[in-house]
Amino acid sequence: MLINFSKMHGLGNDFVVIDAISQTLDLTAEKIRKLADRHYGVGFDQLLVVEQAAGNADFRYVIYNADGSEVSQCGNGARCFALFVRQKGLTEKRTIRVETGAGELVLNINADNEVTVDM
Questions:
Q1: Which of 1, 92, 115, 119 can pair with 82 through a Cys bridge, CB separation 3.0 to 4.6 Å?
Q2: Is residue 1 part of a domain?
Q3: In terms of residue numbers, what domain contains 66?
Q4: What's 72's domain CATH number?
Q5: For residues 8 and 16, what is the distance between their CA atoms, to the nearest angstrom?
Q6: Residue 90 has pLDDT above 90, yes or no
Q7: CA angle, corner 69, sides to 64 and 75, nearest 5?
Q8: Residue 94 confidence (pLDDT)
Q9: Distance CA 119, CA 112 (A)
Q10: For residue 94, what are the contacts with CB-CB under 8 A and spacing of at least 6?
């Protein structure tokens, strides 16, 4: 399976971010664990999967730990997510509403590309 992804870092955490809007994914817990393996895979603390929003938000994202389990939220991941969708041209907005497992977040990107998250 060929997957386009970005590797991002935020305050000591590393993330793999995948755009599931532009490509089809077939992820399982086993595949996530293999990707997360720092000896044989890309290696990461968490996997962030960018998806179309189901509601009125701009996007939805799903967060997986390296063991393949899904989690509801991560502040450092949210900051990386915001920069990813801007850098990849998925949005030009500086205020981004995103659906997460913990509810909707509003992410703000300032002129210096610093992201704030109200959790």
A1: 115
A2: no
A3: 6-117
A4: 3.10.310.10
A5: 6
A6: yes
A7: 40
A8: 96
A9: 21
A10: 86, 108, 109, 110
Q: 71 forms bridges with which residues in the sheet?
A: 63
Full-model pTM: 0.92
Residue 92 lies in a domain: yes
Place of tokens 């870092």: 9
Q: What is the pLDDT of residues 6-29, one digit of tens each?
A: 999 988 899 999 999 999 999 999
DSSP string, the chain: -----EEEEETTEEEEEEESSSS-----HHHHHHHH-TTTS---SEEEEEE--SSSSSEEEEEEETTS-EES--HHHHHHHHHHHHHTTS---SEEEEEETTEEEEEEE-TT--EEE--
Residue 103 token pair: 């509810």
